[in-house]
# Entry
Amino acid sequence: MAIMIPAWVNGALQPVEKLAAHQRGLRHKAVSIFVLHGQEILIQQRALCKYHTPGLWANTCCTHPDWGEDTADCARRRLNEELGINGLPLEHRGQVEYRADVGDGLIEHELVDVFIAQVDTYIPTHANPDEVMSSRWVPHHALVAQITQMPQLFTPWLRIYLSSHADMIFGDKAAI
# Structure
């Protein structure tokens, strides 16, 4: 069954099959979540079976809302589907738009609703192997350093978020 996501076609928001949106480079809605514990960010390594950017490290969770789905509902749903995380209070931090080549002729042109969740303790994850190979907590400053040293190990959108939108996403934590 094809997944239909909200994308702009000829100036109007329409349901478009997810792969087709990436093949055509259509601007479409997306959601990104960063789970934070103090100065640390929970990141995930994308499963090798993903049709783009397999094996690369990304933020905690990133996805596309289904056609007609609220972005906060989507964020909660995908945290559970990808990492088995439930019940976190999400804070909407704003929207980011970017366009990035993700390989194999695919383009992510996304209007992203960004959410964060602050946790007081390390939370367990139960990764769905069809979505996530691995996850780990990494201090913000160490993640920035790792991306600078080895950008090819990280998704284009994570690199964009940390280089161009860190203040909006992390607030005062971005300077640490």
Remarks:
- The two ends are 44 Å apart (CA to CA).
- Residues 71-83 form the longest helix (13 residues).
- The chain has one domain: 16-169.
- Strands lie at 4-9, 12-17, 27-37, 40-46, 57-58, 61-63, 91-103, 106-118, 132-139.
